[in-house]
Amino acid sequence: MVIFRALGPFEAISDGETLDLGGQRQQAVLARLLVAGGRAVPVSALIDELWPGEPPAQALSTIQGYVSRLRRALEPGRAPREEAGILVSAPPGYALRAGVEDVDSWHFEHLVKSDHDGPAATLERMETALGLWRGPALAGFQELMWAQAEAMRLDELRLLAVERRADAALRLGRTGALIPDLEAHASAHPLREEAWRLLALALYRAGRQGDALGALRRAREALRDELGLDLGPTLQRLEQDILAQAGHLDAPEAGPASGVSPGARVAPALPDTPRGTEPARAGARALRVLIADDQALVRTGLKVILDSEPGLDLVGEAENGEQAIALVRDTRPDVVLMDIQMPRLDGLAAARRILAAEAPPKVIMMTTFGTDENLYAALRAGVSGFVLKTSAPEQLIAAVRAAVAGDALLDPAVTTHLISAFAGRRDPSAPEGLSDADVDLIKLVARGFTNRQIAMTLDVPEGEVAGDVTALLRALGLVDRAQLVVLAYERGLVSPGTPGA
């Protein structure tokens, strides 16, 4: 039996002995297949990741050699012509076929995300999950982008496991031993409101009401200094309950040890409800979120953030505005995180189409640079928020929840009233008398799209596009589409070499 370690230095173990997996590049191939979670990884992707920019001429044969040697190490008893059972060929590349419990990172994630029957079972599973952690995940490959993203995702899951473990211990009435670990956890991660909730509750149950209120004051200071935000509703409610010495805060009677040894480290855990929401109700639905960004690395980072946040459910990913429109129709998300600059159809044009539909989702625009032009355009599109891709994960989550609540988050000091002030103002480069939808149509015509391509991009009937183009030419006093292209370039609505308008 082969066991793959990914939580810490990468290695494979069979019958208690560490396998010789060869050099760093061979190990990187196996680790990359492990990160794929059983899905096929194309050979071209392996080559690009191992030799970014300038792969050697013999890269394909080198990968094949790596796979051959890895197969011999993983299945030493396999006959020469027998089909591999662990590292298998899966066109257009290779895949790792292993059981969940044979891969530490897979087993760890399964334990953290699985449903639990009561606090005792939760505590036991979180202890098991955290026992698999042996150091920074994929520690030997931190110079590779895919390893960095996966390590960040797994570390977020570790924090979640740490918090769920402590929450279960509190529910079982085990308070005193938690406080030192909770102090350390909250200090190391001062923007995690759940860490402060658990610490304040543990302090209160230990008879330290003043220290519990002090912990909440520290939480408020951290959130205000870093994000310009006050405590969320959950912490505000806890603060009021502590001041009122509410009876429901009292600790339950301590339950049996349930396999946890005396002195075992128990750290903080998330409650059963999303942070900053009302207490959990049976059948409460998670918020459905769609990501639209043309950069795979950005999408991966956003997935890490959303996966680590209870109460948020990623329902789809789009690489351009055209895909975003179609996915919104198919998945019916509550919130769309939309990049402004994307190929084929940019985020602002896609947002306008999405928001024009019946019962549309909330749309939050994302950009790398917070320029006035981008802010102005996003506000004019009628979106529910505007965030930088460099924003802290907590601020992105706050924007999602604010949008669903009917508020808007542009900046800690700027909210809905600013959107109202901008509403109705026009793009100074657009011809007079044209709507935003007309401008979007001009941009697509100027980029050489046919009526059929425009219809597919905007998800409208082709006949409607033909009528809109004719009406647009008539309104502008133009004869044909060529003149429309000239107008678009003269007004600066498009420019040579620009992938999106």
UniProtKB/TrEMBL annotation:
<feature type="modified residue" description="4-aspartylphosphate">
    <location>
        <position position="339"/>
    </location>
</feature>
<feature type="domain" description="Response regulatory">
    <location>
        <begin position="288"/>
        <end position="404"/>
    </location>
</feature>
<dbReference type="Pfam" id="PF03704">
    <property type="entry name" value="BTAD"/>
</dbReference>
<comment type="similarity">
    <text>Belongs to the AfsR/DnrI/RedD regulatory family.</text>
</comment>
<keyword id="KW-0804">Transcription</keyword>
<dbReference type="InterPro" id="IPR016032">
    <property type="entry name" value="Sig_transdc_resp-reg_C-effctor"/>
</dbReference>
<dbReference type="Pfam" id="PF00072">
    <property type="entry name" value="Response_reg"/>
</dbReference>
<dbReference type="InterPro" id="IPR000792">
    <property type="entry name" value="Tscrpt_reg_LuxR_C"/>
</dbReference>
<dbReference type="InterPro" id="IPR001789">
    <property type="entry name" value="Sig_transdc_resp-reg_receiver"/>
</dbReference>
<dbReference type="InterPro" id="IPR051677">
    <property type="entry name" value="AfsR-DnrI-RedD_regulator"/>
</dbReference>
<dbReference type="InterPro" id="IPR011006">
    <property type="entry name" value="CheY-like_superfamily"/>
</dbReference>
<dbReference type="InterPro" id="IPR011990">
    <property type="entry name" value="TPR-like_helical_dom_sf"/>
</dbReference>
<keyword id="KW-0805">Transcription regulation</keyword>
<feature type="region of interest" description="Disordered">
    <location>
        <begin position="250"/>
        <end position="281"/>
    </location>
</feature>
<keyword id="KW-0597">Phosphoprotein</keyword>
<dbReference type="InterPro" id="IPR036388">
    <property type="entry name" value="WH-like_DNA-bd_sf"/>
</dbReference>
<feature type="domain" description="OmpR/PhoB-type">
    <location>
        <begin position="1"/>
        <end position="98"/>
    </location>
</feature>
<keyword id="KW-0238">DNA-binding</keyword>
<dbReference type="InterPro" id="IPR001867">
    <property type="entry name" value="OmpR/PhoB-type_DNA-bd"/>
</dbReference>
<dbReference type="InterPro" id="IPR058245">
    <property type="entry name" value="NreC/VraR/RcsB-like_REC"/>
</dbReference>
<dbReference type="InterPro" id="IPR005158">
    <property type="entry name" value="BTAD"/>
</dbReference>
<feature type="DNA-binding region" description="OmpR/PhoB-type">
    <location>
        <begin position="1"/>
        <end position="98"/>
    </location>
</feature>
<dbReference type="Pfam" id="PF00486">
    <property type="entry name" value="Trans_reg_C"/>
</dbReference>
<protein>
    <submittedName>
        <fullName>Response regulator</fullName>
    </submittedName>
</protein>
